[in-house]
Structure prediction request, 202 residues.
Amino acid sequence: MSTTDLKRQLADRFREVNGEHPMTDADDAYVSAQFTVLDELCAVHGRDADEARRLMLGRRLPLPGYLRSDGAEMVPADLFSLADEAGGTHRLEAWFTAHWTVPVVGEEEWDSYLSGRYVCLHSVTPAAIRRKDRLTAAISAAPHEPTAGSVRWAVRLHALIDELDALEPAFTAYDRLRFNGPTSRDTCIDAMRGRFPRPERR
Prediction:
């Protein structure tokens, strides 16, 4: 299969997952700053870009995080790191899902990882995914705790928010379209900081 055919199939798969949402100039600028063109990443690492596309289509590597307006397949700089750590793409699924004690949860996370939609993390690893889930759950539940509003509670809340802030990138308007609503940064970082100001230091 030619490069053109592989790129077309990959673009079709991407749109099946994310829908049809045009990228703006601001989206393109954000993505170019945060991600890497697949062909360029493969060239740096001595990998074949078409083989990477085949692995994506075969559910052995995640889909691109974004398709830039010019059609460039934008991927994280550490796209191949998990497969390398697992001992190859043929071992990646078993290695990845083993990080969850409940098999069905591991399988769900594997599907999410393959979708390429984990653009909510600077580095997509099982440990980071699990930590993000814990942080967003804790932050969302915090306003309902019995001690909500106390200084000690606020200090703990902002420590959680700061940790999530360090894990997550800024996101772009395109993300809010494909996710059909606000991002976790919107709800768990920006909104919570606005709703519950950081306690003043004494």
